[in-house]
Amino acid sequence: MKFGQRLAQIVPTLILVSILVFCLQQLMPGDPALVLAGEERGDPKVLAQIRDELWLDRPLPIQYLHWVGNVVQGNLGYSWRTRQPVAQLIGQKLPVTAQLAVMAFAIAILIGIPTGVIAAVKRNTAWDTIASAIGLAGLSMPTFWLGILLILLISVDLGWLPPSGYVPLTQDPWQSLATTIMPAFVLGNAIAAILMRHTRSAMVSVLDQDYVRTARAKGLSGARVILKHALRNALIPVVTLGALELGTLLSGAVLTEQVFSIPGFGKMVVDAVFNRDYPVVQGVVLVTAFLFIALNLLADILYVLINPRLRRA
């Protein structure tokens, strides 16, 4: 599919996502007006005023069109709970989650891809068995359990890193790294296992291709054959997987952020759901959908850079 066609799909996809999130959140139990009224929830006048201010007394299609009209103008609305602009809240939380996601993804790449290549090259050996066992352990290990274990070992017993909290990167880079390295490893560990398994599978398939045998027959070194010919083609499906996993990280790792008290997307969404703060939920889901689309477009560009033959398609 051409790049222009992918760009043309952005608007319909975002419209579909907005309709789904708007309709599905209406199925959530409870009345937002009752939650927001607090101690005055027994006063019908207060409840009527809240519903009128938030357009809750209008039909659902009118509510949706009102919200979408504001979004098109760049206004994601205001948090019903804090009365802050949703765009401002997202602007505060997104850098936190983005830093954590980039660190976790870097850890996953540094561990997962080399391990997958080694497992494929040394297949049916002890190296392959060890790598597969590590990958299976990474997939099976709950992130919250690994996070608690690291806190007990590294923070409580050894005292090397702070157990929780977050320091902005602009305020103190070293302290920021110290507060995010453990949660980043917890998140990256699971993704590294996924990347390892897919890299191994792709490499095993590529290493059996005729052009790899031809490269070896020409007398090229094993490292050059693996890195230049085999890995370059094997990375194409891994790039797709990586884009999706990075999008998942940017959407907010709820459990990990809760365990390490990281004030990111995940914690904000959980609080918004419990408080029936619909504008925050809608804004976060819409931004997350856009990030997923952008990352998939980036994956298409990387395809061409990795495999120049796709430029003719």
Keywords:
MetI-like fold, single chain, mainly alpha, 0% strand, 313 residues, globular, 75% helix, 2 domains
Question: How are the secondary structure elements laid out?
Answer:
Layout: H1 3-8, H2 10-25, H3 32-37, H4 44-53, H5 60-72, H6 86-121, H7 126-140, H8 143-157, H9 173-207, H10 210-217, H11 222-250, H12 254-259, H13 265-274, H14 278-306
Helix pairs in contact: 2-14, 6-7, 6-9, 6-11, 6-14, 7-9, 8-9, 9-11, 10-11, 11-14, 13-14
Largest sheet: none
Q: Provide the CATH topology of the largest domain.
A: MetI-like fold
List low-confidence stretches.
none
Radius of gyration equals 24 Å
Number of distinct helices? 14
Named at the architecture level, the CATH assignment of the largest domain is Orthogonal Bundle
Tell me how many strands there are: 0
**Distance N to C terminus:** 8 Å
What is the structural class? Answer: mainly alpha
If you average the pLDDT, what whole number results? 79
Topology order in helix (H) and strand (E) letters = HHHHHHHHHHHHHH
Tell me what you see in this structure.
With 313 residues, the protein is mostly helical. It has two domains: 3-72, no CATH class; 93-312, MetI-like fold (Orthogonal Bundle), CATH 1.10.3720.10. It is built from 14 helices and no strands. The chain has helices at 3-8, 10-25, 32-37, 44-53, 60-72, 86-121, 126-140, 143-157, 173-207, 210-217, 222-250, 254-259, 265-274, 278-306. Helix 2 packs antiparallel against helix 14, helix 6 (86-121) packs antiparallel against helix 11 (222-250) and helix 10 runs antiparallel to helix 11 (222-250). The relative contact order is 0.14. The model has no long low-confidence stretch (mean pLDDT 79).
